[in-house]
Amino acid sequence: MLAVFATNAQTSNSKAAGPEITFESLEHDYGTIIQGGNGDCVFKFKNTGNEPLILSDVRKSCGCTTPTWSKEPILPGQKGEVKVGYNTNSVGTFSKTITVLSNASNATVTLVIKGTVNAKTTE
Prior knowledge:
This protein is mainly β and about 120 residues long. It has one domain (about 20-120): Immunoglobulins (Immunoglobulin-like, Sandwich). The chain is built from 1 helix and 8 strands, in the order αββββββββ. The strands form 2 sheets. The protein has a 4-stranded antiparallel β-sheet with strand order 1-3-6-5, with no helix packed on it. It has a 4-stranded mixed β-sheet with strand order 2-8-7-4, with no helix packed on it. The longest helix has 12 residues, at about 1-15. The chain is elongated.
């Protein structure tokens, strides 16, 4: 009887099985950048679950962003990256989303990039 109670107590204290994606940050603020400047940023994440994490797709909200991501399974405790390039040729304020789809318990995560692109001055 005691063994059954101990087993049930262990089960209720353990995490749910499966991968889980945990990002260091969900938003990147470029601040103010100059037209044609560097629009690259990196979103780092960790598999905080107990099974391999697989990113099935990373979707952009417009053609001005180019995401690349870790294609190999991310083992429990390991880290990965979603790299985003933003085309800084258009002047003005921007706020764009990148949607990360995976096999994690939190299967859809939305990342945000934002900032302001100022016109390049000619000298």
